[in-house]
Design goal:
There is one protein chain. The chain is of the alpha/beta class. It has helices at about 5-15, 35-45, 75-85, 100-120, 140-145; strands at about 25-30, 50-55, 65, 85-90, 125-135, 150-155, 165-175. It has a 7-stranded mixed β-sheet, sandwiched between helices. Helix 2 links the parallel strand 1 (about 25-30) and strand 2. Helix 1 (about 5-15) runs parallel beside helix 2 (about 35-45). The protein is globular and about 40 Å long. The chain starts with 5 loop residues before the first helix and ends in a 9-residue tail after the last strand. About 40% of the residues are buried. The structure holds S-adenosylmethionine. S-adenosylmethionine binds next to helix 1, helix 2 and strand 2.
Length: about 180
Amino acid sequence: GYRSRAAYKLQQLDEMEDLLSDGDRVVDLGAAPGGWLQVATERVGTGAVVGVDLQRIDPIEGVETIKGDMTDEQTREEIVERVGEADVVLSDMAPNMTGEYSLDQARSVHLARQAFETACALLRPGGDFVVKVFEGRDLDTLRDDMEAEFEYVRTTSPAASRKESSEVYLIAKGFLTAPVEEGE
Ligand code: SAM
């Protein structure tokens, strides 16, 4: 069994969008408790999977984990240093819910933007990026900014997540430029 119901969302996203292939190097942001890591490591075979979260992630065979805050520049630098180049960057990050939708939504967009910037620093040309975000303000701007960096961006809601109706996934395929070298 999987550690989270979220695992089924990644399975559905992969089936719809063809994200994970044998040999891929995958970085998963907001990875605890690790359901997506379990699905990703099954699907990339000889590839590599790295998970990052504020919270500790119980070990998964073949998966490297980093404990850190993605809003912290040091964490982002550490990931780039440790991973080098990635084929796929995933983010299922979500803020701690306050119950006030406009605040939770704004935090979600902020986390999604941090994930997007990290993806731009990590992805090889042609690589893919998936990010969860709550619908609402500033989502169109984020999507427009992503469209400038990828061949195309699609907004989707896997069946497994339809109950939590405000969340969508942006699927960005075909990263257009080479990753930025750290320290230059
Ligand atoms: N995909 C995961 C799975 O299948 O197990 C579930 C992820 S859960 C919906 C969202 C995660 O985002 C939480 O574990 C939370 O700690 C993490 N998160 C939220 N803000 C973060 C941040 N600033 N940096 C790193 N992780 C963060």
